[in-house]
């Protein structure tokens, strides 16, 4: 039950602040490892592109944003060297968006860094408490927790 010293609105703010702390720490580390231009939204895009690539239209649907918004982000990531556009071998009228070696490296480093960040939290809070927090969150969140449409959801 929410109480005056623990009002209900504090929980989502703390969850968001925890997420933000992890993401800010991740990007500080990524910058030091050769990826200073990667931004939090870029991780969602790279995940949505996936190993096989996708079209800008499908990417927009996966992210919950318009095709134009997806295209603008793709343009930026192409300019930064994380994505490339290529002809679709199955349909010459379509262009695929694919990750480059730099994009794969950014995702690989992110996965390693997330493990290291989790280990830091466990060193501070205790491994059992971090595991319990993860278990509790798994019980409370929907099963489709790993949706990639967060950029669209935040955008309204």
From TrEMBL:
Record's keyword annotation contains DNA-binding: yes
Query: SMART domains, per this entry?
Result: HTH_MARR
SUPFAM superfamilies (alphabetical) = Winged helix' DNA-binding domain
Top-level division of the source organism's lineage: Bacteria
What's any GO biological process attached to this entry? response to stress
Q: Which UniProt keywords apply?
A: DNA-binding
Using the record's annotation, list all stretches that form the HTH marR-type domain.
Answer: 1-142
- Which GO molecular function annotations are given, in alphabetical order? DNA binding; DNA-binding transcription factor activity
Could you tell me what this protein is called? Answer: DNA-binding transcriptional regulator, MarR family
